[in-house]
Automatic annotation (TrEMBL):
UniProtKB keywords: Hydrolase, Iron, Metal-binding, Protein biosynthesis
Family matches, as InterPro entries: Peptide_deformylase, Peptide_deformylase_sf
Organism taxonomic ancestry: Bacteria, Pseudomonadati, Bacteroidota, Flavobacteriia, Flavobacteriales
Reaction(s) catalysed by this chain's protein: N-terminal N-formyl-L-methionyl-[peptide] + H2O = N-terminal L-methionyl-[peptide] + formate
Gene behind the chain: def
Protein name as annotated: Peptide deformylase
NCBIfam families: pept_deformyl, PRK00150.1-3
Annotated positions binding Fe cation: 105, 147, 151
A family per Pfam: Pep_deformylase
Cofactor: Fe(2+)
UniProt family annotation: Belongs to the polypeptide deformylase family.
Extent of the signal sequence: none
Purpose: Removes the formyl group from the N-terminal Met of newly synthesized proteins. Requires at least a dipeptide for an efficient rate of reaction. N-terminal L-methionine is a prerequisite for activity but the enzyme has broad specificity at other positions.
Length: 196
């Protein structure tokens, strides 16, 4: 089932998510719905707060990035095959010199800005079977994980912008929160409490 994506301005996007257990109700159905919602909106990641749930859960599927012809064949293969569920994740290490990449967000449509992040991360998390993992990721995969991880910490990519950039996009953000935007996927807008 395709769920509405919560738009910028909804308080759930600023809440730090809570850990969940294996007993979380209908987790399998939730994960299936989240993948369907993300793919329908042409996203590469989706966090539970973006569908209105303040829990520490996000998923990533970087296969759309694999079609970028500027990437090496090795990078394309890594991105094409990367599909993962992260539950109760904690980034335990970030390494390397920060680099800029133009990011967007399904909760903030039509806004894209350069965000600086470190290129290499180590993450502790459990998967959908609640098996514990500690893994290191780099490059675009690390970036997508960092973006989604921020969501479960109550942080949006726009929070990482300079005050000048924030002022320049303030009108766009206000319009998004009021539902004054055209998107081709279902959204829930905080100021109008309406669904599309």
């Amino acid at each position: 089932m395709i769920l509405p994506i919560v738009a910028y301005g909804d308080p759930v996007l600023k809440k730090k998510g809570k850990d969940i257990t294996q007993e979380y109700p209908n987790l399998d159905a939730l994960l299936e719905n989240m993948f369907e919602t993300m793919h329908n909106a042409c996203g590469v990641g989706l966090a539970a707060p973006q569908i209105g749930l303040p829990i520490r859960l996000f998923l990533v599927d970087t296969s759309p990035f694999a079609e970028d012809e500027d990437l090496t064949a090795e990078d394309q293969k890594a991105l094409k095959d990367f599909k993962r569920i992260f539950i109760n994740a904690k980034i335990i290490k970030e390494e390397g010199d920060e680099w800029a990449f133009n990011e967007g967000c399904l909760s903030i449509p039509d806004v894209r800005e350069d965000v600086f992040r470190q290129p290499k991360i180590t993450v502790e998390y459990v998967d959908e079977s609640f098996t514990r993992h500690t893994e290191t990721f780099d490059g675009l995969i690390a970036r997508v994980i960092q973006h989604e991880y921020d969501h479960i910490e109550g942080v949006l990519f726009t929070d990482k912008l300079s005050s000048l950039k924030k002022r320049l996009i303030k009108g766009k953000l206000t319009n998004i929160s009021k539902g004054k935007i055209n998107v081709d996927y279902r959204m829930r807008f905080p100021d109008q409490k309406k669904k599309r």
